[in-house]
Amino acid sequence: xxLAPDVIRASGTGDVKARIESELSFKxxxxxxxxxxxVGDRVKAGDVLARLDSTEQAADLESAKAxxxxxxxxxxxxxxxxxxxxxxxxxGALSQQDLDSATQQYQSAQNDLEAAKxxxxxxxxxxxxxxxxxxxxxxxxxxxxxxxxxVQPSTSVFTLAHDGARDAxxxxxxxxxxxxRQPLSLEVALLSDPSIKAKASVREISPxxxxxxxxxxxxxxxxxxxxxxxxxxxxxxxxxxERRERIDIPWQALVSKGGQPAVWTIDPEKKxxxxxxxxxxxxxxxxxxxASGLKPGELxxxxxxxxxxxxxxxxxxxGVAR
Length: 322
What we know:
The protein is of the alpha+beta class. The chain has two helices and 23 strands.
């Protein structure tokens, strides 16, 4: 037997998702009167995606504008009164008390105008919030609204997958993550066309387990994803977890000794057989990979092991035992 490179490989299927996704929602309640985007649409930052009925907000804005105009007129009148009283006070025609009263009215008018301007700004912002705009370049992946529907503030209307970095997302059995081994290599490929592939690296492992499936969500960062790896595309990940020199044997050579795995070995000098216990690392489809029990150069019996007994004389030629 000789040492051969042994690579522990694993694979799994998942899909491609955007690294960053936004849940877009209105900040005010209202009835949707227009919708301009659907699932799969490409949008740019600032594009209008939907509109609410803005009749109430427009009326509030006009009322706020009128309030500002009224307060500006009041401030102009208070300013004129204050200027006259200052002049009369200097000549002694009015008392200081009359001047103080005019000053208070002027300051009150200033404060009222600032409050009116704040209400105007708030009304203008509220009117703008009846339009839902994209916050980045990307693709709409989820739509939760129809024209005529009444929505509440912060109710998700669209999900926007941002352009840029892409992740491969998988649900992995929790047992596969039970040790701290780091993968030697990691690659993802399209399930429909394995020739389209890219390198990847582990970006995030969820700390929570999906109790219904017993799996953990793992996200892989795809390095320079090909254009064909579009959002939602099913992919397969191939990972090399460990590489070392091990001895493997054909499964036909495997026998039992006291309920434990063993193989028949041949002493090349004494030309006798010996049943030797082994420790199995794992079973593959065409071979058995050993953890220990055999050394490089040892001869084993692959076929006819059922006819052997301990220390039986055998003959062999060119590595074939008889």
